Recover the amino acids of this structure.
């Protein structure tokens, strides 16, 4: 995985995942929003765990779930 | 040459979570109930320990005190959440459709996958003590699943008995395996991880044993990696331990 690739982050409080490729449009975060660009005071929408207690993961999606995308060149 | 860390019982993270005040929506059983949680790895407000070990992120030794003491129904994704009941009675309810009472020796693995909710309740006067183990899954957003099993200490005494994962009757979606050793007599038990790329976390539930030469008492633990085998030596007195093997 290169630095350019979209990354996934997992909430260590509940397992909620944030995928930079997908964003969270229902929470006002557009697809393609980098983790670093999400405010430091942002919390997990499911359990309230603060941003700094998310972990970057390189776990693939299960079959039938979103296909990871690459950022446009 | 293997690597290891030793974590003594008293050096774990200690938290008491009340059913009143700021945590009242999280912990039920108001007003007398409270949960004590002793964490082997970082969890919630305890952030001065190890972040985890392999795919393990949470290893919590938790006691639910007073009737109604519970984690209220709350959501999860992705984590494989396991509970091993050591004493008392646990009511586990989840949105895969399970409503189970688990007694000492019973255990479950709830893979939250694409999304699931659960509640954990002790409705009895006797405290309920369980080990809660959370592991990262091998894929995100798997279909949620639930399995439960029972460790029969008498029938499985004096050997390392697989409970969950590879080589065990109950699968979990991760390159990990949980086993238990209940010993009633002196013995030498050799645990062989599937590869040197797998680590083993040995947690003593009760009693005393030697783990690769380190004496571990009740609730002490040791993590070992780059090892082809882990040797557990037991004495005359009963000893009880959980072994969690995980890809690193």
């Amino acid at each position: 995985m290169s630095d350019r690739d979209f990354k996934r982050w997992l909430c260590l409080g509940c397992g909620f995942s944030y995928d930079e490729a997908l964003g969270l449009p229902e929470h006002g975060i557009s697809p393609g929003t980098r983790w670093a660009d999400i405010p430091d005071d942002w919390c997990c929408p499911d359990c309230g765990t603060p941003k700094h207690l998310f972990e970057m993961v390189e776990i693939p999606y299960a079959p039938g779930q979103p296909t990871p995308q690459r950022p446009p060149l | 040459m293997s690597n290891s860390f030793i974590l003594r019982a008293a050096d774990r993270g200690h938290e008491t979570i009340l059913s009143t005040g700021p945590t009242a929506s999280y912990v039920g059983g108001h007003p007398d109930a409270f949960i004590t949680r002793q964490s082997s790895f970082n969890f919630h407000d305890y952030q001065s320990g190890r972040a985890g070990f392999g795919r393990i992120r949470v290893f919590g030794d938790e006691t639910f005190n007073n009737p109604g003491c519970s984690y209220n129904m709350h959501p999860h994704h992705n984590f494989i959440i396991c509970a091993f009941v050591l004493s008392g009675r646990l009511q586990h309810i989840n949105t895969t459709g399970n409503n189970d009472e688990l007694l000492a020796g019973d255990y479950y693995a709830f893979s939250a996958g694409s999304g699931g909710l659960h509640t954990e309740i002790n409705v009895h006067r006797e405290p309920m003590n369980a080990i809660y183990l959370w592991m990262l899954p091998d894929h995100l957003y798997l279909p949620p699943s639930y399995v439960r099993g029972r460790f029969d200490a008498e029938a499985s005494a004096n050997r390392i008995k697989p409970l969950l994962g590879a080589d065990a009757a109950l699968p979990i979606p991760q390159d990990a395996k949980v086993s238990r050793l209940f010993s009633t007599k002196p013995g030498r038990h050799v645990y062989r991880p599937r590869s040197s790329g797998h680590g083993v976390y040995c947690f003593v539930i009760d009693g005393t044993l030697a783990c690769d030469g380190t004496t571990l008492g009740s609730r002490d633990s040791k993590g070992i990696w780059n090892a082809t085998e882990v040797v557990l030596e037991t004495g005359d007195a009963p000893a009880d331990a959980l072994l969690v093997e995980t890809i690193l």
User: Anything to note?
Assistant: Chain B has a mean pLDDT of 96.
